[in-house]
Amino acid sequence: MEEKDISFTTAMTLEQSRVSIIPKRYVLPPSQRPNPNLPVSAILPIIDLSLLHSQSLRAQTIKEIQIACKEFGFFQVINHGIHQSVMNDALETASKFFNLPHEENMHLFSGDVHKPVRYGTSLNHTVDEVYCWRDFIKHYSHPISDYIHMWPSNPTCYREKMGKYSKAIQELQKQLMGIIFESLGLNPNFLQEEIEKGQQTLAVNCYPACPEPGQTLGIPPHSDFASVTILLQTRSGLEIKDHNNNWVPVPCVDGALIVQIGDQLEVLSNGQYKSVIHRATVNAQEKRFSIASLHSFGLETKAGPVAELVNEEHPRAYKELSFREFLDFISCNDVATGRFLDTLKMKS
Q1: Considering the entire predicted model, what is its pTM?
Q2: Beta bridge partners of residue 289, listed in sequence order
Q3: Maximum CA extent, the chain
Q4: C-beta neighbour count of 84 within 10 angstroms
């Protein structure tokens, strides 16, 4: 049985102890520190999903998604069909969870990335060279009946409200994958069974207020393994890297959900769509909560470039991958120093 260190210091514990200087293990080298004065971008794409129901506007909306996936690996969606109260309840539940006494959550604490439910800090404190200012609870969420009994039981509303949000996001993800496949010139029902039986991991994050936000990050630069990640947030803090290697702060749009292209979709599209490199900054005054729903094929399911997207002009560019192989990679590698995706790229 894994030993639980109830004295382990989390970012929330440091905030509650009101430190004025962050511990050295959180301090990034100067070249990796964020610029807290970057202006929030007004150019990032926002897609109105209700326009897909318009015969005259559907093609243009799919084209906008195609451009967003190619140019940014990222877009926000509005009119996505998930009620605001469901999103608010999930964020409120997250806040209640992280404000519980430290020892209450430690029975879920683990550095084992293969566990279906685990509470932790940083990205993976067992391998991270520099810690990040973040606490999280991660749990598998689809099919929800297989996992919900392992989720936190405190606060008492956690399973009900987070479960309702998780199921709504799972349905939205199926819709989005169909649209993304259509934007690649594939049948919208392509790989429907793999998507239906796929993996959903909910990462519920807390970024406490930080006394030195220019010295550290909430999450370092990385891309997600997922086909897509759907993100809900309470305030701005997410930054994405553009084609010019510049960091672009993402605005927090009321009622919107963020859609990020992940490594698996980059591989499936044979590089037509790029997984977005992103990071999370922290704030001196306010906590930030986010809920990232990461979607991929099943744990052991291998995925490679789609045959229809491989040709003489676009030769196969990636090896196959699976979620299991990704977990094995991050269990012994600091993702801030190397991407799993880079191990899959074929030499030209």
Answers
A1: 0.92
A2: 206
A3: 60
A4: 9
Nearest to 73 by CA among 281, 203, 224: 224
Give the pLDDT band (50/70/90) at residue 124. Answer: low
At residue 119, the 3 state secondary structure works out as strand
Structure tokens at 189: 């029902």
SS3 state at 185: coil
Q: Contact, 4 vs 106, CB < 8 A? A: yes
- Residues in CB range of 78: below 8 A, 6 or more apart: 46, 47, 48, 49, 253, 255, 256
Q: Tokens in use for 226?
A: 């997922």
5 has pLDDT over 50: no
Which of 330 and 138 is assigned the larger pLDDT?
138
The pLDDT of residue 1 is above 70: no
Q: Specify the residue for token string 């004025």.
A: 20
Residue carrying the six token digits 């030993």: 3
Q: Which residues pair with 321 in a beta bridge?
A: 303
Q: Treating both helix axes as pointing N-terminal to C-terminal, what angle do 84-98 and 158-183 enclose, rounded to 10 degrees?
A: 130
Nearest to 311 by CA among 275, 272, 274: 272
